[in-house]
Structures are given as C-alpha cells and as structure tokens.
C-alpha cells in the first residue's frame, strides 16, 4: 500500500500517533506530525501546534503545505483525559477535554477541508475510543468528546462524500501507551478480564487500520466506526 501522498497526524510525537506516523513513513507517504513537545519519528516533518489554538493549527498547516505540499490525509489523533466522577468534575475538566478531543478535530479538519475539496480527494480519520459508545464511569468528559466524533465523521461524509473525500472513525480499546500505563495494575487486570482478546492492544494494531483507511482499498468506506479493541465494544 505504498503512496507518496501528504499525511498530517496530530499528536505524532508519542503513543498511537507516533506509530501511525511511522507506518505512513514506511509506506512512502510524506508525513508531517504536530507536536506540542518533542519530535515525530524519523522521516517526518515536525510542526509545533496545540490543537486548542486555531491560529497555531493554521500556521502548522501552512508550514506543511510549503514543505511537503497540500495535506491529503488528516489523522486527528491528539487527545487527553481528565478522569473523575460527574459530581467532582469541574467546568474546566469538561471543557478542556472537549476542546482538545472534539474541538481539536474540528480545527484541524476545517483547516484541511479546502485543500481536500480542491484535490477532489481526501481522507479524514478521527481517533475516537471504545468508551465513546460503551461508556465509562469517571469519563463523562472524555466519552462525550469521543462519541461526538462519530456524528462529526458522519456529517462530514454527508457534506463532502460526493467529492472523493471519506471520513471515518477508528475506535481503539485499551492500547499500551502512556495513557493506559498510568492505570493501576489491578485496574489493568480487571479490564483485561473483560476484553475477549484477553490483552491490551499494541499501537501498531491501530496504525495498521488507519493506514488501510487512507489507502485506495478503503475508497468506498465512509462514516464508519472501526473498532480496534480485541472485541471489548462489540455491537458499536
Ligand atoms: P498519549 O497520551 O500517549 O498521547 C497523546 C498525544 O496527544 C500526545 O502526542 C500529545 O502531545 C497530544 N496532545 C494532547 N493534547 C494536545 C493538544 N492540546 N494539542 C496538541 N497535541 C495534544 O495518548 P495515546 O497515544 O494513547 O492516544 C492517542 C489517541 O488515541 C487519543 O486521542 C486517545 O484518546 C486515543 N485513544 C487511546 C487509547 C489508549 O488506550 N491508549 C484508547 C482509545 C483511544 P504532548 O506530547 O505534547 O502532550
């Protein structure tokens, strides 16, 4: 599935985003990653951007366009958690998570859209989570922001689907990364008991699905939610 198209991955300095960027580099794509800190993997162009800041997102795209060309594949991956039960959740806990996970996708995809329309080709891939549709105690902010990405991709599909542009959601389950490393050992064991595969996934297992969605083989798939969760969320 090699290609020399231009890809932008948000939050490509670590975790799942980094693995996605590596996968695209290996397949020959021209890859840019946004990072607030650190650098993307070898072979990528790293641009600084906080996805809560529309001006920073705009500047990052301009730099990528100048150095690599118009962005054709956008992967909105940057995300955060701020877990606590509803009664303890502050306005800021809620707003900051939604502003990053949902607002970030909005800013990045909006900035990319004109270029995709001009090219009459595009791939929008939004990284959601199994908990967006499964629900999760202590994650009302996070789960809400992640399920909203489904409405986002499906609305975008209706707006741009006739122009060679697809928009899909990838919903990982528990994946080994910094985000899950902070979970206490007994919580991890309890989660694994509920996952039919009996284990957490690897970042590469998400990256493979994302790169496939970007390929020509997935040209007729749009508005889909693709779980990568070892069977945890069956029934999405
Ligand atoms: P990590 O915590 O390892 O990485 C998160 C990434 O998002 C980092 O690159 C981080 O940048 C970036 N980021 C966070 N906030 C912002 C911001 N405001 N602007 C720009 N970048 C930002 O998480 P994962 O790799 O595990 O998660 C990646 C995505 O996958 C997230 O959307 C997450 O919700 C989702 N996901 C993860 C699962 C898991 O089990 N790990 C399960 C389901 C979904 P920085 O280094 O600068 O902080």
From TrEMBL:
Pfam families: adh_short_C2. InterPro entries: KR_dom, NAD(P)-bd_dom_sf, SDR, SDR_fam. GO terms for molecular function: 3-oxoacyl-[acyl-carrier-protein] reductase (NADPH) activity. SUPFAM superfamilies: NAD(P)-binding Rossmann-fold domains. Keywords: Oxidoreductase. SMART domains: PKS_KR (SM00822). The keyword Transport does not apply. It is an enzyme of class 1 (oxidoreductase). Residues 5-178 form the Ketoreductase domain. Its EC number is 1.1.1.100. Belongs to the short-chain dehydrogenases/reductases (SDR) family. NCBIfam families: PRK12826.1-2. This is 3-oxoacyl-[acyl-carrier protein] reductase. It comes from Microbacterium invictum.
